[in-house]
Q: What sequence folds into this?
């Protein structure tokens, strides 16, 4: 069990455990449009939906998860949270969900699988959660373009090396960068991740940088400020 300040998450049945990427995305995602409803694509444990339930006034938070064990765990985590009445998980792939869309969403969020190299492990559930071929960026972006409301925000975390390609693919479907934060582990390390938020209005994106640690477990003030509402020891 992983305990946060306002909720806890069981994760023993999920291939992908809670990590820094998910917590960063859940804490960083802009809520400037005060979303009424949210869609979490590839929910895993449900961590992103739970963080957004804590942070926002959203009335409806839908999640989709294709892996059966992860789906069942996500439902369990939703039901034991303080926001169980507005959290709902669908056991479906994105292609099935998009085939019969019932809603547009003011916020679409995803921590997509993004190991694109040829290496695969012996754990098929973990591979599904870790490799981009399980949820290609193209499929994710097309779904966001279809399901996002006019004033909606689409928010993801991806490897920094994929940022340019991802932004270009979004622009082809009239999704434009609103905010970009490049994440590095320490002040001297290379950029590792890109937090990206898109909207339907073309504008000059706010671009900044986030450093996580000054030294091992010595976190930067910016990282503490971002995550302090969630981590018990921040």
A:
């Amino acid at each position: 069990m992983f305990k946060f300040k306002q909720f806890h998450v069981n994760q023993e049945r999920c291939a992908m455990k809670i990590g820094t990427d998910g917590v960063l995305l859940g804490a960083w995602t802009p809520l400037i449009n005060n979303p009424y409803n949210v869609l979490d694509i590839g929910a895993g444990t449900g961590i992103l939906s739970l963080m957004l339930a804590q942070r926002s006034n959203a009335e409806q938070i839908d999640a989709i998860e294709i892996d059966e064990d992860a789906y069942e765990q996500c439902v369990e985590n939703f039901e034991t949270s303080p926001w169980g009445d507005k959290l709902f998980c669908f056991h479906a792939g994105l292609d099935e969900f998009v085939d019969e869309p019932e809603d547009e969403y003011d916020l679409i969020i995803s921590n997509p699988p993004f190991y694109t190299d040829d290496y695969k492990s012996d754990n098929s559930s973990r591979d599904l959660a870790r490799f981009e071929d399980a949820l290609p960026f193209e499929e994710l972006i097309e779904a966001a373009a279809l399901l996002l409301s006019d004033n909606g925000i689409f928010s993801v975390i991806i490897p920094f090396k994929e940022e340019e390609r991802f932004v270009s693919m979004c622009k082809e479907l009239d999704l434009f960068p609103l905010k970009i934060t490049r994440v590095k582990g320490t002040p001297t390390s290379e950029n590792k991740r890109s937090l990206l938020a898109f909207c339907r209005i073309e504008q000059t994106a706010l671009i900044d940088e986030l450093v996580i640690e000054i030294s091992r477990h010595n976190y930067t003030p910016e990282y503490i400020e971002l995550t302090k509402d969630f981590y018990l020891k921040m």
Remarks:
- The chain is about 30% helix and 30% strand.
- The chain has a mean pLDDT of 91.
- The first strand starts at residue 2 and ends at 3.
- Residues 68-79 form the longest helix (12 residues).
